[in-house]
Amino acid sequence: MKKLIIVGIAALSLIASSVLADANPKQKRIKKHHKPPVTRQVDRVRTENGFERDMTKTNAKGETATRHTSVVNDKETQTRTRTVTGTHYNGGEYSGQSVTQKTEDGYTRDATRTNSQGKTTTRSVDATIDKEAGTVTKNISVTNPEGETKDKVIVRPLPEKKN
Which structural domain, as residue segments, surrounds residue 98? Predict the structure, then answer.
């Protein structure tokens, strides 16, 4: 009974403070942090079998970051290759590549990423789609720059089809 009274009092105080805040518009409210402005230039070009995209961002200090993305689709092998290279505002460079291939019952994806310190992480996904059960099961393996590998399995419902 004591817990119920305490919970009730807490709920009433929250409601009262909310009503009082609405009644007094001059009361200070907590504001989210504002990010400084960033200008962004994006150029995208469609290619015969994919696309190329270049993005340049400039922050309030005048520092520039870049990102180049290239996507190539091979219909014959049912493979999609995505390559990314870029620079951070501090000049550090990074790169990555992922290759996704359709399989009989889902897809596989192998990815490699190298950060600005030259450290590489690899990730491998083997996804199986079970239309009867309405699920997708992903077996994921990630190897960090120190060579430690972690494996996990994720089972999710398939997204509903939009009409």
Answer: 39-157
Residue 30: inside a domain? no
Residues 6 or more apart whose CB falls under 8 angstroms from that of 92 comprise 115, 116, 117
Q: What tokens were used for 120?
A: 């590489």
Q: Which residues contact 23 (CB under 8 A, 6 or more apart)?
A: none
Domain count, the chain: 1
Q: Are 66 and 53 in contact (CB under 8 A)?
A: no
What is the 8-class DSSP label of residue 145?
T
Which CATH number characterizes residue 105's domain?
A: 2.40.128
Is residue 129 in a domain?
Answer: yes
Instruction: Provide the whole-model pTM.
Output: 0.73
The residue assigned the tokens 């939009």 is 162
Per residue in 55-103, pLDDT (tens digit) is: 999 999 999 999 999 999 999 999 999 999 999 999 999 999 999 999 9
Structure tokens at 34: 């504002």
